[in-house]
Amino acid sequence: MEKTFVLVKPDGVQRGLIGEVIRRLEQRGLRLVAAKFMQVSKELAETHYAIHKGKPFYDGLIAYIISTPVMAMAWEGPNAVAAVRQTMGATRPTEAAPGTIRHDFGLEVGRNLTHASDSPENGEKEVALWFREDELVSWERALDPWYFE
Ligand code: IDP
Ligand code: MG
């Protein structure tokens, strides 16, 4: 089953939106695999966002992610990566489609509330970066056949 990594970033946590993000992903039919409320270390933030090192927004991005706690999660389902990216919306809230989290709750790219993996490969990598193998729960829901064909 395809897995994707999701963060409710510090602004989402501060604004009390952890439940809203989880509600939308559950409603979509995705299955929760792991969750951890945590303060992110500088080292973990830099590894997670290594691809953006050197960009003008990089220092601000690291400072934002380590500022206060985040909710880190792994979710799975058919096309989980694409489904979650769609539910989050475009990176810039003013370009995100109405009905997406970033549209419905955000204004600025530097306060866009969530992270979601951008490819199945990065989903695997990010889940492995943020969670130990024994933190991932393999389970079946009674209603899985009504979400997964
Ligand atoms: P994504 O989160 O939609 O995958 P990326 O392009 O991978 O977007 O950028 C990672 C994160 O870096 C964004 O979610 C946002 O928090 C931040 N970011 C990206 N571009 C900018 C910018 O121009 N200014 C400030 N922050 C930015
Ligand atoms: Mg990205």
CATH-derived topology: Alpha-Beta Plaits
Mean pLDDT: 98
| Corresponding CATH architecture | 2-Layer Sandwich
Total domain count:
1
Spans where pLDDT lies below 50 across 5 or more residues: none
State the share of residues found in helices, binned by percent: 40-55%
CA radius of gyration is 15 Å
What's the total number of strands? Answer: 4
Shape: globular
Strand percent estimate: 15-25%
Trace the largest sheet across and list its strands: 2-3-1-4
Oligomeric nature of the chains: single chain
Largest beta-sheet characterization: 4 strands, antiparallel
Separation, N- and C-terminal Cα atoms: 12 Å
Number of helices: 8
Structural summary, described in words:
By secondary structure, the protein is of the alpha+beta class. The protein has a single domain (2-38, 71-139), classed as Alpha-Beta Plaits. The protein has eight helices and four strands; from the N terminus they run βααβααβααβαα. A four-stranded antiparallel beta sheet has the order 2-3-1-4. The radius of gyration is 15 Å and the shape is globular. The two termini are 12 Å apart. The model has no long low-confidence stretch (mean pLDDT 98). The protein binds inosine-5'-diphosphate (IDP) and magnesium ion (MG). The site of inosine-5'-diphosphate has 10 residues, from helix 4.
